Amino acid sequence: MSGTPYFKFSHSVVVVPIVSVLAIWSVYWIELAQQLNFNSYGIYPQTFSGLRGVVFSPFIHGSLEHLYNNTIPLAVLLAALFYFYNKIALKVVFWGILLSGFLTWCIGRPSYHIGASGLIYVLASFTFFKGVFVKHYRLIALSLVVVFIYGSLLWYIFPVKDGISWEGHLGGFLTGLFLAAVVRADVPLPSKFEWEKEDYDEDGDPFLKHFDANGNFIETKPEEALKEDDSFKVNYIYKRNPDND
């Protein structure tokens, strides 16, 4: 069974990243244009009002640098998710936002936690671990690419720098790992060659019959080859030429 049809381009691969990037930039533009500050709509741990940030915090950013740093990873990882895991991508994003936000609300410091970085950690973690769990060569390759490009993100799930919500990063990382383990992808395994199958009969292989025990090619006449294997039969078609009659 071939896995190729599973990986196919769809409009969501382009539309979802573009819409997501436009959404976070639009919110920031509204803040600047209207001289507003939406930080109070972020996650404020262990408070009832702070729970609204579970939904709103991914759209809110504290500065242009903060927004820019989240834009490219968000777009790239969403595009990868919707291409390689199209059937479950929306489920991963939906539960990723809710679970990572709730974890941040549970373990975070008494401060407003904002930004799309929690979702970015969900996507990076899910993409890496799902490729490892599924063991499909294309998804493993994707996991390695994620590690190569975003492997440094791992440091920021620890309190290594002031002003960064490491709790949100840790919540996203753990959520991605959890979703990779429980959300079924149904990715078909790539087809195997005959010699890779467990019931492969080496003695009955018509190709190997043309070699001796030492691997040397056995030369046979065309007539003998036709007798040995019906798969080599040739049909000859003669066309009558009336002029030669």
From TrEMBL:
Transmembrane segments: 12-30, 67-85, 92-108, 114-132, 139-158, 170-187
Name the UniProt record assigns to this protein: Rhomboid family intramembrane serine protease
Source superkingdom: Bacteria
Predominant location category: membrane
SUPFAM superfamilies noted in UniProt: Rhomboid-like (SSF144091)
Pfam families: Rhomboid
Keyword Cell membrane: no
Any one GO BP annotation for this protein: proteolysis
Keyword Zinc applies: no
Keywords of this entry: Hydrolase, Membrane, Protease, Transmembrane, Transmembrane helix
Stretches assigned to the Peptidase S54 rhomboid domain: 54-184
EC number: 3.4.21.-
